[in-house]
From TrEMBL:
It comes from Halteria grandinella. Belongs to the thioredoxin family. Coiled coil: none annotated. InterPro entries: Thioredoxin-like_sf, TXNDC17-like, TXNDC17_dom. PANTHER family: 42-9-9 PROTEIN-RELATED, THIOREDOXIN DOMAIN-CONTAINING PROTEIN 17. Residues 13-127 form the Thioredoxin domain. It holds the Pfam family TXD17-like_Trx. This is Thioredoxin domain-containing protein.
Amino acid sequence: MAELIQITDTATFLPALESLSQEQETVIVILTGTVDPSSGKNWCPDCERAKPNINKHVIANAAGRKILMGIVKREEWSGRADHPYKQSALLKARGVPTILLIAGGEVVMRAEKDEDFENEELLKAFTEQ
């Protein structure tokens, strides 16, 4: 299984991505919503639906690698075009969940549509790079 680096502070996310890019040829980035500790559920229903397949086909297959997970709060994300992950020239995040594969400072693979998270071959491809 992969080592997850979970970051909730957007100010530290991009520097952490830069640092991890120096350690690994490719970096898997997962953007997701926060989980409510009282219910155990993600505020983002799409994230909740995608989680089992992300865990099974990405996280479990990325043994020996570090995965950077950006965890966003609903109030900072929903309806906010100015969120740093949306504004980032590299990430260009449109929604959560999103999975990105970054190599050489560029996004080379992206999963962000509902059907992407049902596509086992696509999800497995993130760990084959």
